[in-house]
Automatic annotation (TrEMBL):
The keyword Transit peptide applies. One of its GO terms (cellular component) is mitochondrial large ribosomal subunit. The keyword Cell wall biogenesis/degradation does not apply. Keywords: Mitochondrion, Ribonucleoprotein, Ribosomal protein, Transit peptide. It is found in: Mitochondrion. One of its GO terms (molecular function) is structural constituent of ribosome. It comes from the Eukaryota. Belongs to the mitochondrion-specific ribosomal protein mL41 family. GO terms for biological process: translation. This is Mitochondrial ribosomal protein L27-domain-containing protein. PANTHER family: LARGE RIBOSOMAL SUBUNIT PROTEIN ML41, MITOCHONDRIAL RIBOSOMAL PROTEIN L41.
């Protein structure tokens, strides 16, 4: 029962790593630098580094996002 716990090296744990637990550990948010800081305290955006998302043409597409084909449409409200 305790074989796995006993096999861990001394001082280690099975908890997730975070900035509060590790020495000089910074996980970040996954976002990259989109530009650079200026000497006057501003920020200059480099538009070649900004992420762009290509969305397909959804003209005539019957489903909305994350909607099952089995879903029934909501009842019409009389206030609309």
């Amino acid at each position: 029962m305790f074989g796995v716990i006993r096999a861990l090296p001394r001082g280690s744990s099975r908890l997730p790593m975070s900035a509060k637990r590790g020495h000089n550990y910074y996980k970040g948010t996954g976002s990259g630098a989109m530009g650079r800081h200026t000497k006057n305290g501003g920020y200059k955006v480099d538009w070649n580094r900004v992420r762009t998302f290509v969305v397909p043409d959804l003209e005539g597409f019957s489903l909305g996002p994350y909607v099952s084909r089995k879903a029934t449409p909501p009842p019409k409200s009389s206030t609309q």
